[in-house]
Structure formats: structure tokens, C-alpha cells
Amino acid sequence: MDSMVGQAVVITGAATGIGRSAALLLAAEGAHLVLGDINHAEAQETVREITEAGGKASSFEADVSDDAQVRRLMAYAADTLGAITTVVNNAGVQRSGAVEHLDVRDWDLMMAVNARSCFLTARHVVPHLRKAGGGVIVNTASLAGVKGGPGMTGYSASKGAIVAFSKALAMELAPDAIRVNCLCPGWIDTPFNRPAISYLGGEDQHRDLVRRTVPLGRQGTVYEAAQALLFLCSPASSYMTGQVLVVDGGVF
């Protein structure tokens, strides 16, 4: 249980769901963490759980779609941790709706929080990773970014942008020993999916869809998604960059 010992990790969107589970897991594996999240109170609760278990973490309130706030987050993390070696871009929002009814403000929100945040984080963290002699960037996209679906045009577009951005960034940063990979979860049992479930017509319709379309016949857990993030962050994936890891129960 020490695959991340000595690693200084920034995780965005770590207050709840996959991000929270990943923070707990990475801390248990020895990483020292800074959690960046707009939901500061919930992020502090994650920090409390980590520190009570003997881990090291702190939180920083930040809107990851805002350039200045992301810059301050990375400066805080570098100062607090002494360096930054790993970044997990996990912050995200989801809105669903038929394309003719999807509000333009929802489209812009998803592009800002989902896609733009990955660009801003990379923009401000790369100098720190170079200073550390290399590092890791993991961007959380979605199955929706590689396989579209009804009512998911805006969300799919924002997550597909993350996939393409990750591939290009990996090629750009490989000479600096900075690895960039992308995680694409499918149906994960988390409140994050409430907008999509509502669009489908409710919990019963959602369960039926999962039974019909997921070969393993169930949703994944946040812990299963977090295990995949740990793999991409750890030396176990040291010869991987520019890759898209789909964790979806066999859908794609």
C-alpha cells in the first residue's frame, strides 16, 4: 500500500463521488494531497477523513473554470506540498436534454467546467511538473466522450474535447517526461448522474437501461473508478501516455 509514496498530488473535484474516492485511495497509498473544489465544506470533510486515517491532505477553494483561481490553486499546492508531481482533473458537471431544448448556458457551463478546466490546469501546472523532473496528468472524461447517446450532446462534446486534448497534450509533454492519460468511466453509481437519470425518465428506466446495455449488468462503484485513477497515477502505468482507459462494464 505504498505505490504513491513521495508523490505530491492535486485533485480537482474531490469533494464527492469518484474524486473523493480517489483522494482517499491515493492518500492511503502514501500520496500527499491538495484537493481543489468549489464545494469547500465538502472538500474539507474529505480532508478530515484522510487526516484521521493518518494521511496528509489540505483543501483549496477554487472554481476550476476560472484562470486566476486555477493559477492560485497550483501556487498553493506547490507551496504546501513542496512540489507537484501529479494532477488529477476530475471536476465536472453534467446537464442533459434534447439538442433543441438544451439551454445555451448549460452548454457553456459544461464546456467551461469540463473541458476548459483541463486546459487551465495544464497551463498552470506544467511549469511545476517540469521543475519536478516530470510527472503525471490524468484527465477524467467519460464514456460519453467516446460514445454518444440521446440527450447527451453537450456533455459528450465537452468530454470528447477532454479526450482529444489529452491525446495532443501527451505528445506535447512526452519530451519532458510528463505522462498524460484520460479516464472514461461509464455508468458509475454516484449522484453526479442524476441529470442523465432524470432525462431517461427516472430510476426504473435507468436500471432497465443498465441491465440491457452493460454487459456486466450493473453500474460501477466509485471505488472501482478510483482504482483505475490510481493505476494511471502510479508507476504501474509508467509506459502509458496519450491513452484512453474506458471503465464501463464492457459497453464500449
TrEMBL record:
Domain of life assignment: Bacteria
Domain Ketoreductase: 7-190
GO biological process terms held by the UniProt record: monocarboxylic acid metabolic process
PROSITE patterns membership: ADH_SHORT
SMART domains reported in the protein's UniProt record: PKS_KR (SM00822)
UniProtKB keywords: Oxidoreductase
NCBIfam families in the cross-refs: PRK07231.1 (NF005559)
UniProt-recorded name of the protein: Short-chain dehydrogenase
